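User: Show me an example of a complex going from sequences to structure tokens.

Assistant: Sure. Here are the input components:
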Amino acid sequence: MSNKLLAKGLAGALAASVALVPLMAQAGDLVIESWRTDDVDIWNDQIIPAFNKKHPNIQVKFTSVTPPEYNAALNAKLAGGTAGDLITCRPFDASLELYKQGNLASLNDLPGMDNFSDVAKSAWQTDDGSTTFCVPMASVIHGFIYNKEAFEEVGVEVPKTTEEFFQVLDKIKEDGAYVPMAMGTADQWEAATMGFQNIGPNHWNGEEGRKALIDGSQKFTDKPYVDTFTELARWKDYLPDGFEAISSSDSQNLFSLGRAAIYPAGSWDISLFNKQADFEFGAFPPPAPAGSDTCYISDHTDIGMGLNAHSKNTEDAKVFLEWMTGPDFAQLYSNALPGFFSLSNAKIDIEDPVAQEFVSWRQKCKSTIRNSYQILSRGTPNLENELWNISAQVINGTLTPEEGAKKAEDGLEKWYAPHQK
Amino acid sequence: MAHSGPMTDWRKAKLPVFAFLAPATILYTLFMIYPLIDSIRLSFYTTPSGGDLTFVGLENYRTILSDPDWAATFWNSFWNNMKFFAVHMLVQNPIGIALAAVLSLPRLKFRNTYRTLIFMPTMLSVVIVGFIWQLILSPVWGVGADILDIVGLKSLFGPWLGKEGSALITLAFISVWQWVGIPMMLIYAALLAIPEDLVDAAIVDGATHFEVFWHIKMPLILPTVAMVSILTFVGNFNAFDLVYAVKGALAGPNFSSDIMGTLFYRTFFGYQLQLGSPTLGATIASLMFLIILAGVLFYLFVVQRRMSRYQL
């Protein structure tokens, strides 16, 4: 009997979904696809109303699914022809693939695209740079967030060089009141993103090293990369007990509850700590090895917005995208979401002090993006996923820095021609 | 499954029989058989970047089974799956049988309370179970270390879920904790079906409770134990949710908790910068299907045929 009930239920659900599809795809409303579930309120209460002040006739709807599901859900919707008009773009290959499949439209002739630098656009261009298919929205910057009260209590200053950095960690450890550094390796990605990609640019000289890896003139077994892994391996002694099983939300809580002194961060953590931490916190850039005169930061192009090539509403969508290239959106977005920094050339005033600190490093240091994102993660094994695994293992001590570097190089060598020489 | 009520003449009843079978047959074909065949079909194709599906025959299978990277990942997940299954067979099912045996003791008080309590975790969502155990075993907030401290064994505590050597086994134990209620209930039901007089006769002949269980009840519940085993096998080789909830799709550290379900997910849907490949994913799904099929056929043709059944 239950089968019949099930049949009725399924038939009902099918009928309902068939009935809903035309509603969702109705011309007139612009629909935005996004993975930023956290930002629903900001879009609905601030960004869309600001757009409607200038263009009251265009209705915009923001829809989102959680980050891990986004790519799969979006692909399914695009294949089924039910995706929204505006599509939030992941950087590099995920979006490039969408463009190649004919799902994203070229935005070369969109007025306002010249408000972005070439570096900003590079994350959403074809390999030869001839076509741009997403409007760059924001980048995220890596560094370290620290508990100011803890630093005062222990009596340490913000470190400038790598050696000072480890001296500070030693002092905090000796003092014993705080966990020196809040990070774990259970989720693996922090080890690579907040660890390897955070401190690495100082070793491989930012863009210089990143490009050298792509053209094959540098290998992961070269000194800069082994040095990065060696420095990363030293973190082990300063992490909380049992860090192998500590997840990223555990470390966020450790820091925001005031139990840890330093948190290897992405600038996107600012808004969470603003909400949860009841002490004053600041930020410092990854300390450079003593003697180097230039500092490098990871200023990673993270999020953009593209146009669904099959949108029934292209004209309105282009109006929205053009508005997104302007200074109003840049100002609004950077302040509504402290830690996401607009990629626009327009001058922006950022109000949040910690976000200000992060963005000020763009002036003193040279920016680069994560070295595994462009081109190098196209094959199997996937370099980015390999780096998660390797960085976590290097910190866990199950791989030596040299073994880790060799593993990364071996993986790349398997499929990437410039590294097979 | 459905009860047909009082029997009428078979030939007259033909039409209603088909009418009653139709909904289930149609639904099952539409939602189970067709997707299964279509997914196997998909595994013979590939999608070049930006292109359409192209037929490649067994190429995907060759990639997964002979390309050094894919083969290593695939067999790693297969052996992890075997370990996962072994823990369930060696821990979950014996405990399930033991609990059922204790529950069926004639003079046990609070029988229903125990039964409900032991069955409770089975009714919880896997995500909740994963979350609770992560909290219990967390080296930062967990009560695990404190509980061990009470019995003076704190030095034994470690970040089990984060160590290469222990992550998979820990996950298997969590799964055992959650699912032990199922074998217990099935075997308990089988034990209740054993007539009292058999047991009474044995006791009159001077058998102890243990002897009664081992020599009289055990042979009678063996078919149920075999069925529980095959259910465990199928369930374990289809497992995915607990590992995904606790360790994510990268099933760390160093893929030590990667099982075929998580490998399938990563391949089919992609993960972080790794783009999904529906065709390779379908290949892994088909291989999982073949492995499970082989296990079930082994059970049907080798185990089940040799089992002696007793008319009660």
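The lines above are the inputs; the final block is the predicted structure for all two components together. The two ends of chain B are 23 Å apart (CA to CA).
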